UniProtKB/TrEMBL annotation:
Protein name: DNA-damage-inducible protein J
Gene Ontology biological process terms from the UniProt entry: regulation of DNA-templated transcription
Alphabetized InterPro entries for the sequence: Arc_rbn_hlx_hlx (IPR013321), RelB/DinJ (IPR007337), Ribbon_hlx_hlx (IPR010985)
Cited Pfam families: RelB
Organism, scientific name: Lactobacillus johnsonii N6.2
Origin superkingdom: Bacteria
Length: 95
């Protein structure tokens, strides 16, 4: 026995999904049934859930470049290091 389910999708998302499924030769119904069966079998979402990449602001972009440059040895890493939490906290309190 099967039952009917209604899924509401944004029109643009539905068009993109249908396009990808057509290329794969899979109906939308078959896709949702496969995803549901895998969730039940695996007890988890059967694919990696991604979000749209956020564009970093200038401050974040500069911090990323600085970290990369330190990792590559282009500039010295003069970041302090600590052997215990007390030293770290004292350093933070000084600023």
């Amino acid at each position: 026995m099967t039952s009917s389910t209604t899924i509401r999708l944004d029109d643009d998302l539905k068009k993109e999904l249908q396009k990808e499924l057509d290329v794969a030769g899979i109906s939308m119904n078959a896709y949702f049934v496969m995803a549901a069966k895998q969730l039940v079998l695996q007890k988890k979402i059967p694919f990696e859930v991604l979000t749209e990449a956020e564009i970093p602001n200038n401050t974040t972009r500069k911090a990323m470049l600085l970290a990369d440059a330190k990792d590559e040895g282009i500039i010295p890493d003069d970041s302090p290091s600590f052997n215990n939490i007390d030293d770290l906290m004292n350093s933070l309190d000084e600023d």
